[in-house]
Input
Amino acid sequence: MLNHVSPRRICNSKAQFECVVPVNRRLAVFLITFLVACGAGLGYTYSIAPVYVATATIQVDPGSRPDEVQKGAAFAANEAQALNSNEMLEAVLLVLQRNHSISTALGSVAQLREILSATPSLNTDVIELKARGREPEQLAQLLGVWAAAYIES
Output
C-alpha cells in the first residue's frame, strides 16, 4: 500500500507560500495568454468581410447515346471549359454592361474569372456554377446571366 503524503507536510510554514506561488503564477500566465489569444482570434474573425457563394447546376445533354456515362462526363468537361472561356465571359460582361443591373465594378474578363467558376461533377453530365463575392443578391443575378448566355450560345 502506498503511503500518501499531503503537500502541507512537505512544505513547512515558511516555505509553504513558496510552494503555492508557482502554481498561482502558472495559472495567471496561462489565463492571460489564453485571453490574449482568444481576443486576437475574435478580433481577426470579426474584422474580415464575409464572402458569399452562390451556386447553380446545369445538366448538359450530349445529344447522342446518353447511356454511356463516360461520354456524358467528357461532354460535361468540355462544356465546363466552354463556360470558363474568354468568349463566354465576354458575352456575360456585355450583357451586364447593357443591363446595368449589377455593379459596374466588374469591368473585365479577368475580374469575372476571379468571381465565377464552372466545374463538372465526376462521371455525370452535370456542371456546377459558382460565384463568390460580397453581395449575395448580385451573385444570384450574375449566375442567371451566365446560365442564360450559355443557353443562348
